[in-house]
Amino acid sequence: PLVERWTRSRAATAALVDGRLASPALEVALCADLVYLRPTAVLELSAVPGPPAAGVIWALGRAGRAALARGLLEPDAVPAAEAVALGLAHSIVPHGAPPPLPGGVSTGALTAARDLGRAAARGAAGLALESASFRLVFAAGDPGEGARAFLGRREPQFEKELA
């Protein structure tokens, strides 16, 4: 129940994995919107002989066909570089460096981007979701600031930035 509430929240989430990680912690990390790995990170797709846990299979499917095939046919350890190539993680972050979290973005824009990234809607439903997200961004902050900053070739200064 806790993980379900977290994945349905309006917050954008990030995970930074260092070392070896297996289920159930791996399932929680792969639910994040942004997944970063340290160079020595290893994702143990299946902690026991057999197929990966349900949450890992969901994350593999979200990453794409190549990741799903790799996880189901070869459910052994995935090193950091391969995890990024498969789409299970966004990038490798050197030891001691902070993960590249979004900054200078309005809360409404980040929330809309997060929702679109999690959506699997296509066709008319996808267009409706995109339209609703556009309206959310416009209603959530200063809709003209982004355009003024673009035209002025400067960084936008939104009133409600992320802390």
What does this structure look like?
The chain is mainly alpha-helical and 163 residues long. The protein is built from eight helices and six strands; from the N terminus they run αββαββααβαβααα. The two termini are 28 Å apart. The model has no long low-confidence stretch (mean pLDDT 78).
How many beta-strand segments? Answer: 6
Strand coverage percent: 5-15%
Spans of at least 5 consecutive residues with low confidence: none
Strand order of the largest sheet: 1-3-6
Tell me the structural class: mainly alpha
User: How would a crystallographer describe the biggest sheet?
Assistant: 3 strands, parallel
Number of helices: 8
Taking the alpha carbons of the first and last residues, their distance comes to: 28 Å
Shape: globular
Report the oligomer.
Answer: single chain
Task: Round the mean pLDDT to the nearest integer and report it.
Answer: 78
Radius of gyration: 18 Å
Helicity, in percent? 40-55%
Write the layout of secondary structure elements.
Blueprint: H1 2-7, E1 14-17, E2 20-21, H2 25-30, E3 34-37, E4 42-44, H3 54-63, H4 65-73, E5 77-79, H5 80-86, E6 91-92, H6 107-118, H7 123-140, H8 143-151
Parallel strand pairs: 1-3, 2-4, 3-6
Antiparallel strand pairs: 4-5
Helix pairs in contact: 3-4, 6-7
What labels describe this entry?
three-stranded mixed sheet, three-stranded parallel sheet, globular, 6 strands, 47% helix, 163 residues, 8 helices, mainly alpha
